[in-house]
């Protein structure tokens, strides 16, 4: 595993909290998924750039590692513990009204 992939794994694991701040409970599943994909791409690109591995295969691998880490962390930790849903509810536009 390269440094870029390791950083993508670490940041990807923590990204569901950031994604929960952006996502809104009333959004469609497609819109919520799009946010997750965009964040994973940004995490992968940033990790590869930060680690100095900004080449084709390394970038794609970092993006995929970030996506798998984010989905796994969300499904395995942040959703079952209630952290992600609470953050979404607290930061939703509807909660501010």
Write a concise synopsis of the structure shown.
This protein has 97 residues and is an all-alpha fold.
Report on this model:
By secondary structure, this protein is an all-alpha fold. The chain contains four helices and no strands. Helix 1 runs antiparallel to helix 2 (29-51), helix 1 packs across helix 3 and helix 1 (3-22) packs across helix 4 (83-91). The radius of gyration is 14 Å and the shape is elongated.
The H/E string reads: HHHH
**What share of the residues lie within helices?**
over 70%
Shape: elongated
The low-confidence runs, each spanning 5 or more residues with pLDDT under 50, are none
For the sheet with most strands, the description reads: none
> Which class of secondary structure composition applies to the elements?
mainly alpha
Report how far apart the termini are.
46 Å
- What is the average of the pLDDT values? 92
State the helix count.
4
Determine Rg (CA atoms, Å). 14 Å
Strand content: under 5%
Query: How many β-strand stretches?
Result: 0
Layout of strands and helices, then pairs:
Elements: H1 3-22, H2 29-51, H3 56-78, H4 83-91
Keywords: Membrane, Transmembrane, Transmembrane helix
Protein name: Holin
Transmembrane segments: 6-22, 34-53, 59-78
Relevant terms:
mainly alpha; elongated; 97 residues
């Amino acid at each position: 595993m390269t440094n870029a992939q390791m950083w993508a794994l670490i940041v990807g694991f923590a990204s569901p909290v950031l994604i929960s701040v952006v996502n809104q409970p009333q959004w469609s599943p497609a819109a919520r998924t799009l946010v997750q994909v965009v964040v994973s791409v940004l995490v992968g690109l940033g990790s590869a750039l930060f680690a100095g591995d900004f080449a084709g295969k390394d970038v794609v691998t970092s993006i995929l590692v970030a996506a798998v880490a984010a989905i796994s962390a969300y499904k395995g930790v942040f959703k079952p513990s209630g952290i992600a849903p609470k953050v979404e509810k607290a930061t939703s536009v509807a909660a501010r009204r």
